[in-house]
Design goal:
Layout (H helix, E strand, L loop, with lengths): L8 H35 L3 H7 L1 H24 L1
Length: 79
């Protein structure tokens, strides 16, 4: 006798809700942290001196920024 697996509609709806909540939480955390970094760097005028003297740090900041912008999408697709 062959057993079949089925997923209930309620379970799928709970997964969709979890996906939306996780995505919104990741977006709020990541984007607020990115905005905070921008505010601190702009307030103390650090963009010019840091990026001019330390290109590795400048590249790292760009990568961190890109990661925090893409992070919610990764969370959305991973769940």
């Amino acid at each position: 006798m062959m057993e079949t697996w089925s997923i209930s509609k309620e379970f799928l709806q709970s997964l969709q809700k979890m996906r939306l909540w996780t995505t919104s939480l990741c977006a709020a955390l990541g984007w607020s942290f990115t905005a905070y970094l921008y505010t601190v760097f702009a307030k103390h005028d650090l963009w010019g001196p840091v990026t001019a003297r330390h290109p590795i740090i400048a590249g790292s900041l760009v990568l961190i920024h890109a990661l925090f912008l893409v992070w919610p999408l990764l969370a959305f697709w991973s769940i």
